[in-house]
Amino acid sequence: EEGWRYSWGDAPDPNRANYDESGIGTTSAVGCFPSGKSPYGVEEMSGNVWEWTRSLWGKDSDKPDFGYPYDPADRKRENLKAGPNVLRVLRGGSFNFDQWGVRCASRLRIYPNYHCYNCGFRVVVASPF
Questions:
Q1: DSSP code at position 47
Q2: Is 35 helix (H, G, I), strand (E, B) or coil?
Q3: Please, which contacts does 55-64 make with residues 24 or more away whose CB atoms are closer than 8 Å?
Q4: Whether the predicted pLDDT of 28 surpasses 90
Q5: How far apart are CA 36 and CA 16, in angstroms?
């Protein structure tokens, strides 16, 4: 819902996402936190691993080239041919971050060729049925 800090509401809850207060200390299987799903039924939008996005941050790690509010008409933000010297946006927080990291507004930036143990990506499969 608009204005929520977390996909499930306004208060952090270690029973709804895998972050530091959950006490797991590593990644967890998708589906472990069904009560943390969004109003649209999407699970695991917060916690577990930081998820890569298509969105670009820019070249300066201190100041994003692409801010908010998000403009879907801005095709520069989604340049799939941007080189390795352009930082990418990660969203969602991870198992070793605090409640700040799992907020809807939280995002990190990282180079696309950088390896991190708490980053991953979401695979979306659309069914014609």
A1: B
A2: helix
A3: 55/88, 55/89, 56/82, 56/86, 56/87, 56/88, 56/89, 57/86, 57/87, 57/88, 57/89, 57/109, 58/86, 58/87, 59/85, 59/86, 59/87, 61/87, 61/109, 64/109
A4: yes
A5: 4
pTM of the model: 0.86
> pLDDT tens across 45-74, in order?
899 999 999 899 999 999 999 887 878 788
Residue 26 per-residue DSSP state:
S
* For residue 1, pLDDT beyond 70: no
Of 45, 25, 23, 21, nearest to 33 (Cα)? Answer: 45
57 sits in which H/E element: strand 50-58
Q: What is the pLDDT of residues 82-105, one digit of tens each?
A: 999 999 999 999 999 999 999 988
Please identify which residue in the block is written with the tokens 């080239």: 65
User: Is 28 in contact with 48 (CB distance < 8 Å)?
Assistant: yes
Cβ-based neighbour number of residue 51 at 10 Å: 17
Distance from C-alpha of 129 to C-alpha of 88, rounded to nearest angstrom? 33
